[in-house]
Amino acid sequence: MVARFAVIAVLLGGCSVGAVETPGGGPDGGNNNGAATFTSMVSPLVTRCLGCHSGVQMPTLSSFNNLQAKYKAAPGTTNVLVTKGDHQGTTYFTPAEQTTIAAWIDSL
């Protein structure tokens, strides 16, 4: 009986199942496309914002990795990145741009 248990333990100990992927593993849903989609979808819309939001003043819009987590949090339609697009008396995001940014957030 002990020998049989030892053989089973050795066989199972040599098995490696690897990491189990789970959805929603990070700010980009675990798919690592957040940076690419930020570059293609959001970056062109926020270039005019970089005068203030490229480092010190939040949100940091210079890259996906620099953008703080709360600006990546769903739901996109109520995310502060979309809702605070209008500030300082200027409309920074058109309704179409707000929809694009909200869809990007929801895709993460």
Give the SSE layout:
Elements: H1 2-13, H2 34-46, H3 80-83, E1 86-87, E2 90-91, H4 95-107
Antiparallel strand pairs: 1-2
Structure description:
Helix 2 runs antiparallel to helix 4. A two-stranded antiparallel sheet has the order 1-2. The longest helix is centred in the middle third of the chain and has 13 residues, at 34-46. It has helices at residues 2-13, 34-46, 80-83, 95-107, and strands at 86-87, 90-91. With 108 residues, the protein is mainly alpha-helical. The protein has one domain.
Question: What is the alpha-carbon Rg in Å?
Answer: 22 Å
Tell me, rounded to a whole number, the average pLDDT. 76
Which term fits the overall shape? globular
Number of strands: 2
